[in-house]
Design a protein that fits this description.
Blueprint (H helix, E strand, L loop, with lengths): L6 E2 L12 E4 L4 E4 L5 E2 L13 E2 L15 E5 L6 E5 L2 E5 L6 E4 L9 E3 L6 H13 L8 H7 L3 E26 L2 E21 L6 H7 L9 E2 L2 H4 L3 E3 L5 H24 L4 E29 L2 E8 L5 E3 L5 H27 L1
Parallel strand pairs: 10-15, 11-14
Antiparallel strand pairs: 1-9, 2-3, 3-4, 5-15, 6-7, 8-9, 8-14, 10-13, 11-12, 11-15, 15-16, 16-17
Helix pairs in contact: 1-2
The structure holds zinc ion (2 copies).
The site of one zinc ion has 8 residues, from loops.
């Protein structure tokens, strides 16, 4: 079986010396590993990468494209066999190390936009090491274990979702009158909207990691998909259809809606919220965002530390030292006792 997907390879080679080029985050160029020449990346000016797509379940580009899990390809430089696996669309030839990028032709592909890496490997590595060294109540060997690992750059698939919501709700809340507590209900109606809810579409990034590294997202910095941005980096396509992405976002959206309803109701001491929402104007983007990831294992548990490839914000999964946590709890209790004692002493004398 062969790979019938077009593969970018020749245009990732140096026009001066035919050497292998990779994308350089510091300069934003395709840089030749042999002669050091930088090549400008030309994108299709007619494509608006920040454009949003209207969601309709029957449109073909909302579907997850079909592809076989193993897609072999013969390297045009050295003849070696490269296999694209699963969602991967960017590989390096294991024989000549040349960058190879799949450019599939299915319907969803033209809707793919990306933000190129701007943070270099060195910066990401030192960010991750500093993060590991500065963890509160961490086991004493944690910093050293993280410092020994290496970051890997990957373009991770994300969705952005927009929607308009017309919400009918009921909040239940407590009122106190004298020493009695009563429960009351209030019905209300609220219009609200969501703009660019970012949803990870790969198991590499959990919603927790997303919140740790991506505090703001600027769609203006999106570029049209171009193989050169991926050269030398791993990259994945979306693991879901748009419908599945929306379902994955349902829980986050529910939490946001409940918080907005509480504010809108003007009530405090709310004990429960129920609502029905009419969602219209659903729009989405299918995008790739740059992320540096370091995988490490602690006590047999695999964890990761992640640096955002756009501005370097770093966040990770980490173990706690129970001994240090107990020590801190004991110190806090001792401090409380000491304060109590002196307070008592001041009262006596
Ligand atoms: Zn060159
Ligand atoms: Zn090769």
């Amino acid at each position: 079986m062969t790979n019938d997907t077009p593969i970018a390879q020749a245009n990732l080679q140096c026009t001066k010396c035919a050497g292998q080029c990779t994308f350089d985050p510091a300069m934003g160029l395709l840089l030749c590993g042999s002669c050091g020449t930088g090549h400008f990346i030309v994108v299709d000016g007619a494509v608006d990468a920040a454009a949003e797509q209207h969601y309709h379940p029957d449109l073909p580009h909302t579907e997850q494209p079909k592809f076989s899990p193993d897609r072999p390809y013969q390297c045009q430089t050295c003849g070696g066999e490269v296999v694209f696996q699963g969602q991967s669309i960017s590989e390096n030839c294991p024989y000549c190390n040349g960058a190879l990028v799949e450019c599939p032709r299915d319907e969803s592909y033209p809707t793919l936009g990306l933000i190129p890496f701007a943070v270099t490997r060195q910066t990401a590595q030192s960010q991750v090491t500093a993060w590991g060294a500065a963890r509160w109540a961490a086991p004493s060997d944690l910093g050293g274990i993280i410092a020994k690992g290496n970051v890997a750059g990957i373009y991770v698939p994300f969705w952005t979702f927009d929607s308009q919501e017309a919400v009918d709700y009921i909040v239940r809340y407590k009122v106190k009158s004298g020493d009695k507590t009563y429960y009351r209900s209030k019905k209300g109606f609220m219009r609200t909207f969501f703009d660019d809810l970012l949803v990870p579409a790969s198991p590499h990034v959990t919603p927790l990691i997303r919140d740790g590294i991506l505090h703001e997202f600027n769609p203006e910095t999106l570029r049209p998909f171009e193989a050169a941005y991926l050269a030398g980096f791993a990259a994945e396509r979306h693991h879901q259809s748009v419908r599945e992405g929306l379902a994955a976002n349902a829980q986050d959206k529910d939490i946001l809606l409940r918080n907005r309803i509480k504010r809108h109701s003007g009530k405090t001491r709310i004990t429960s919220v129920s609502y029905k929402t009419d969602t219209t104007g659903l729009k989405y983007r299918r995008i790739l965002l740059p992320v540096w990831i370091l995988h490490y294992t602690y006590n047999g548990k695999s964890m990761k530390v992640v640096t955002c490839g756009i501005h370097g914000r770093t966040f990770g999964e980490r173990p706690f030292s129970m001994a240090k946590l107990f020590g801190m709890a004991a110190a806090l209790a001792a401090a409380a006792t000491a304060v109590g004692f002196f307070w008592g002493a001041a009262q006596i004398f």
